[in-house]
């Protein structure tokens, strides 16, 4: 088995649930009280092994998860947070459709610094979502634009949070060099 550490960034507007997703994934907890992330918070978690499809080898990723504050402006320091990332979870709040519009800018800036990185688009707070077709369509279009998959998640209930990180791990399975 091959062990690999990968830097993963969380992208998205202020208060979309990035920190809550990381807390649910790493510590299996959810805090009702909102705390703003200042700068960057780095967490680490060992993921289940995945099989590399071409060679049949098992790869076990350790994700170094960079939870970056909702950057409303992209300065040089902010762009440096993205440097060296293997992938990102781009998060929107399904209850605030404008956060989906902002994902384009976040993803484009991220990929300009880490062009080989993989993206996974997340529509978070599905537990509060009223299944608005227009909002869902917007999320799907964003995922297609970046040739990415998308998942609907809830940090509060844990719905598809593990799957989001494991999906990214599987996508990264053949990029261990």
Low-pLDDT sequence parts: none
What structural class results from the helix and strand content?
alpha/beta
- In terms of DSSP E residues, the strand content is 25-35%
Number of structural domains: 1
Instruction: Summarize model confidence as the mean pLDDT.
Output: 89
CATH architecture: 3-Layer(aba) Sandwich
Under CATH at level 1, the class stands as: Alpha Beta
SSE arrangement, N to C: EHEEEHEHEHEH
Distance between the termini: 14 Å
Q: State Rg.
A: 15 Å
List the helices and strands and how they pair.
Blueprint: E1 2-11, H1 18-27, E2 40-46, E3 50-51, E4 58-68, H2 76-82, E5 87-93, H3 98-113, E6 118-124, H4 133-145, E7 149-152, H5 161-172
Provide structural commentary.
Helix 3 links the parallel strand 5 and strand 6 (118-124). The longest helix is centred in the middle third of the chain and has 16 residues, at 98-113. Strands 1, 2, 3, 4, 5, 6 and 7 form a 7-stranded mixed β-sheet that branches. The model has no long low-confidence stretch (mean pLDDT 89). The relative contact order is 0.22. The chain has a single domain (2-172), classed as 3-Layer(aba) Sandwich (Rossmann fold). The chain is globular, with a radius of gyration of 15 Å. It has helices spanning 18-27, 76-82, 98-113, 133-145, 161-172; strands at residues 2-11, 40-46, 50-51, 58-68, 87-93, 118-124, 149-152. The chain has 5 helices and 7 strands; from the N terminus they run βαβββαβαβαβα. Helices cover 33% and strands 27% of the residues. Helix 3 runs parallel beside helix 4. It is of the alpha/beta class and 177 residues long.
């Amino acid at each position: 088995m091959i062990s690999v550490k990968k830097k993963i960034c969380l992208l998205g507007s202020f208060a979309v649930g990035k920190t809550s997703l990381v807390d649910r994934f790493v510590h299996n907890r959810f805090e009702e009280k909102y705390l703003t992330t200042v700068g960057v918070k780095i967490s680490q978690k060992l993921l289940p092994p995945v099989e590399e499809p071409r060679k049949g080898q098992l790869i076990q990723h350790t994700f170094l998860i960079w939870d970056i504050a909702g950057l409303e402006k992209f300065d040089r320091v902010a762009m440096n947070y993205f440097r060296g990332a293997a992938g990102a979870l781009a998060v929107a709040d399904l209850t605030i459709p404008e956060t989906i519009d902002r994902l384009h800018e976040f993803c484009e800036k991220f990929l300009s610094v880490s062009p080989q990185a993989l993206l996974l688009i997340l529509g978070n707070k599905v537990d509060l979502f009223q299944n608005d077709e227009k909002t869902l369509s917007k999320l799907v279009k964003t995922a297609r634009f970046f040739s990415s998959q998308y998942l609907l998640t809830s940090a509060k209930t844990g719905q598809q949070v593990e799957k989001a990180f494991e999906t990214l791990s599987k996508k990264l399975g053949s990029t261990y060099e």
